[in-house]
Structure formats: C-alpha cells, structure tokens
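INTERNAL TRANSFER SHEET
From: sequence group
To: structure group
Subject: histidine kinase

Please process the attached sequence and return the structure record in the designated field. Keep the field labels unchanged so the import script can parse them.
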Amino acid sequence: MRRPSLLEDTITRRLAITVTLAAGVTLLVLQLFFTFGGQWAKPDIQETGLLGLVGTVIRMVEVAPPSDRPHLIEAANTNEVHFAWYDKDNHVSHLLETGHYREAEVGQSWHFLQPYLRHYPSKIVVFQEDNPISQESGLPYDHHRFRDAYFVGVRFGDGSWILCIALERVWGLYSVQRLSLQGLMLALWVIAVSMIASRQMSRPIEHLAKGVKQLGLQPRTTHIDEKGPREISLVAQTINGMQAQIQRFIEHRTTMLAAISHDLRTPLTRIRLRGEFIQCSQQQAALFRDVDEMQAMIDGALSFFRDDASGEESIMFDLPGLLQTIAYDYCDQGHTVEYQGPGKASYVGRLYALKRVFTNLVENAIKYATPPTIDLEIQPNGDFLVFIRDTGPGIPEDSLPRVFDPYFRLDKSRNRQTGGVGLGLTSAQTIIRSNGGDITMTNRPEGGLEVCVHLPRI
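Return from structure group:
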C-alpha cells in the first residue's frame, strides 16, 4: 500500500491542520486579550509593587515622631499613590473610626499587606469611591479627576491614622479571579476546538453513512460518492466494489431462476396436450388441476423474479392518493374498503411496486377475512405507517413468524380456488424493505389481523 503524500486529504492531515489553526488562534486571542482587555489584562496587584510601597510607608511613618510624619508623607507621594496622616483629634480620623466598611474587602486587603507589615494594626479600613468618606474635603486627591480611587486606612497605636490612596486601579484581577477566568476560557476554547476537530472527522463519516443508507434503499441505482479523506474514500471504494459484485450475483441468480421457470412452461403445455387423449374424465380432470397448479406456481415465481429484478426508479408521489385509489377500486367491485388518514402527503419510493404491495394486502384481507380498513399515520419524524386491519379470524400465533417465508401457506392448498402459491407476502416484504421500511403482522385483541407497513421518509 502506497504511503499518502503530505498534500493528500487524510484524517491525519485534517487533524494536524485543525490543531495548528487552534494553536494559532489561541495565540491571537491571547494577544488581543492583553491589548484590548483593559482592567482584566492588567497584572496582579502583587506584581505591581504597590503593596510593597504602601507597606514600607506605613512602617516608616509609624515609627517616626509625630512632628516628622507630615514630611515623610509628603516625600512618599507618587503619581500613582498619595498618602495622608491625621492625628487622633482630626475630623477625618473620627470619620475613619466610625465609618462603615465591607468586611470582605478589609480581610482581603490585610491578606495582601500582611507580608509587608510587622504586625496586625490596631485597626484597618478599606473603601472605594462609593463610600461617603471619599467625598470629604481635606483628602489629598481630586475626587472629580480620580473616580476609581481605592483607600486603605491604618490606625496607629497612638490613635492617629494614615490614609493610603491609590488614585487609579493599576492592577487587574486578583489571582483567584484570574485563575477562574483562565480556567473558564481554557475550558470554552478546548470545547470549541474539540467540536471543530470532531466535526472535521465526523462529517465524512456521516456522508459515508448516508450513502450506505441510500445504497440499502436503492441498491441498483445508488453509488456512494468516493469523497473525503483518503481513508473514508478507500472505504467507499470498497463498498461500491462489493455492492457491484453482489448486484451481479443477484442478477445472475435471478436470470437463471426466471429462465428455469419460463422453460417449465413448455413441458407443461405438452402435458396438457397429451392429457386431451386420456379417456377417463376423472383422471383427465385431476391431471389438468395439477397442470394448472404448476402453471400458477410458475407464474407466481416469474412475477416474484420480475419484481426482484425490477429497475423501477423511486419518484415522488401522493401516498394517500394511492391508498384512496386502491380503496375506491375495491369499492367499485362491491367490497367496502375504507380509507382513514391525511388527504395529501408526498412520499419518495417505487410507485408501481408499492401499489402491488398494498393491492395484494387488501386482496388477501378480502379473500381470507373481511374487507379491511386502510389507515395512514404520519409520525413526528416524517415516517409513514400504513395499517390494513380486518375483522376476520386472524392467524395462529405460531404461524405469524413464517407468513413471509416463500411458498408458506396456512391452508396448505395451492389451487385455483384460493389462488396464489405463497409468494405474495414474500414479494411484498422484499419491495417494502427495498424502500428502507418493513412490514409486520399481528393479531388484534378485538379480533382480526393487523398488517403494519413502515415506510421511512427518505
């Protein structure tokens, strides 16, 4: 077997291209995220160095004499962070002492500052622009200019306060939030890539499965397209070759059996001619009955083989119209056959073959039971169910599995009075299955026989 080239369409090549594109798109998405992600794309607060600056200033101011603290505060101010110190009698200190804060934010801020402070302060407060304290006069920032400021206040042992103000948020999501977001994005991206890759792999297989299904419905006319990856194309080629061999075998078998059945007519004709010279009328009548029975068997076999070898194309037709036509034909003959179901519904199949099937089923009901009702139901998935119900004696339960066997008859008689040789139901089953459906028989609880013909929508 030759090795596939790199340019040939194969499953391996498709998978490699999908993974490569996925990696490239991932890098592009990450670049776009860091370029346009705004606050989300900023570094973690622990990576900005802001916490180290705040912790250092707090420690220096705490140990400095009260007279030196304003000078230290002034020297510590930067373009990003402003500091202010208030003694315990200042009104700002009173506001910081009596204000309302979110416990979660306070605990989180202590978690970040703990590595940079020697001990837990006597009190720590955290708030943002939505807190009324941020609007007080005397705070070392312009609240009209900096609307996203963050505040951290620490109370010293002597009751004074130091207020640290981050004028703008220079950090992004916290580590837990960042990990959660990254995990979510990764999960979504893995799902998206998996769906794309699986679709690339499953689409040719679905196409192949659809072709095989059509091949089962119309084996004489359907050819599977040999498209898609090399591996799928090889499977399609193998199936087409196998189908061609099977079709040739069936054609040879059908031709041989039809020829045998046809050739049997000649000796039967000679037997009938010789029977004319028999003097005994009883023996002559018995011989003619046997000849007629054999002739009926041959005619039935030829009809069956013609149906089997038929190349009738599937067309779209009105299935309710066909069933109503059959019912009207038997009504014209004096048999009350009723149709119940929709007035119009399109179906694609072998029109004349299906007409022979339903005619045979209705005729069997009239001949062996009572004139039946024909009911048509359309399933939610578009399939058709045709029920032919009579009120006759039904069929013994042990015989139901065998009614579709060739030459099987319940009355064991093959004569012209009952008609047929036991190939009608076999032919009907073959035709229905060639349309992708099936046919079943069951005894009705209230009496009679129910024949169900399932025709899938193609």
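Handover comment: DSSP finds twelve helices and eleven strands in the chain. Residues 45-166 form a domain with the Beta-Lactamase fold (CATH 3.30.450).
Transfer complete.
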